[in-house]
Amino acid sequence: MAVALVACGPPSADRPPPGSFAFGVFGDGPYYLWEEGPFERLIEDVNGTDLAWFVHVGDVLGRSCADDVMQKRFAQLNTIRHPVIYTPGDNEWTDCHEGGSGGFDPLDRLASLRRIFFATPGRSIGGGTMRVESQAEDSTFAEFPENVRWVVGGFVFATVHVVGSSNGMESFPGRRTELDAEVVRRTDAAARWIDAAFATAYAMSAKGVVIALHADLGMDPGAPRQGYSRFVQQLKRYVAEFAGPVLLIHGDSHEYRVDRPLRDEHDTPYPNFTRLETFGSPDIGWVRVVVDTVAGRFVQFEPRLMRGWW
Length: 310
Hints:
Elements: E1 20-26, H1 36-47, E2 54-56, H2 67-77, E3 83-86, H3 106-117, E4 125-126, E5 133-134, E6 148-152, E7 155-159, H4 164-168, H5 177-203, E8 208-212, H6 229-241, E9 246-250, E10 257-259, E11 273-277, E12 284-292, E13 297-306
Parallel strand pairs: 1-2, 2-3, 7-8, 8-9, 9-11
Antiparallel strand pairs: 1-12, 3-4, 5-6, 6-7, 10-11, 12-13
Helix pairs in contact: 2-3, 5-6
């Protein structure tokens, strides 16, 4: 006799208190067939929660990078009733040269990813679309519709296309020089988009800044990672100057954590900086973040892990 294991999700989330709003964060999944059930439950949980939007920080697939797989994930994300903001991960394109992923040309997969997920620059995906400002609206950066920015409750939010696998710099047999040029161009666009986010924050005297990207930048002491030093130094400069809280959201390492890894030259953590890394495969879960727009701070990080199968 077959026995189905059914696990309930976490208790229903409370509504944000007056003067606050909540948003959701997910990434690095689902990868495998047995993670599809928990992912569907995650969508149900998200749809039953009062959220302003939902962010996916990349790696929407685990192996095959074929168009039909990306189309499937795009369709699933569109069943979320909230606006969905998605920023790419390495699994969707930079790692697609691997045999298990289909042996694709990464630049071909990047073009497909942009065609599928960013067909309408300046609009989120999901059931309730939201207007965002896209870097592609600047003709100088027309090829980067995935870098977006929006302002809510006195906070500036931005997604930045910075991926794992050493920000796309890892070598592999058959790597073309065009990929090196892509890394240079995308890194410059990403750094300029972070500059623009903080310029917006300064201009409007924002209460806080939130940056979401895929890669674990290696901010932990003694853990530098190739391809990210420019972004770490950039964050240090802005965090030291900016008066309000700065939240960096990422995935990549598949470890849920909320901490303060960014340190100054005296090895002292910056008190106004927080790092949120969301769950990743094999853990399928999301994080609810509550923002107090009156006090100007992040008041809650609630992990919501989907357990078991159905």
